[in-house]
Amino acid sequence: MKLSTYFRSSAAWRVRIALGLKGVAWTPDFIHLLRGGGEQLRPEYRTRNPTGLVPTLETDDGAAIAQSLAIIEWLEETHPTPPLLPGDPLARARVRAFALTIACDIHPLNNLRVLRYLGREMGQDQALRDRWYAHWIAEGLAALEAMLADQSGPFCFGDAPGLADVCLIPQLGNARRMRCPVEPYPKLLRAEAAACVLPAFADAAPDRQPDAG
Q: Which CATH number fits domain 89-201: 1.10.510.10, 1.20.1050.10, 3.40.50.300, 1.10.1200.10?
């Protein structure tokens, strides 16, 4: 399999973690989001992913899958061990709700193309863009912390890492990179501590990627 990835993309980071947890071998296709106006916007890449975003997973038979959660759900269905979702339907829905809060509510508001638009088209300076970023991070992390109110860990939902952890770790990494406080969220930090000692999470970190720099 080939994964189109950028070391700092939290969406690609999620997929790298999931591939590691599943023990699936993959080859990187490095797509630099800043170089040359953004390699993800080139026509040859858009033929595989019309959104012009990363990641894209190319399967062994040449099919291309876009969107990190769609890729991870495909991996869950085709490589079910170890599972990233619980068997109980209600528990599965709660895990998905947590993951989707990150992928649909927090991350899109703070994505690179949104921040660029705020600057280039809306005339917002860096200080205002940073305020925008910090506001939505705080709102989102507070909601995630509340979702874990009845969870005892060590991971987000139970004794093993799952889809929630796969999505949480990159989001916390983004928050720290932008100097957003994470100390008010002890349950999130507990799950992070449990996850980050595992090779699948450690190996997927941005600073461990060959294209980092």
A: 1.20.1050.10
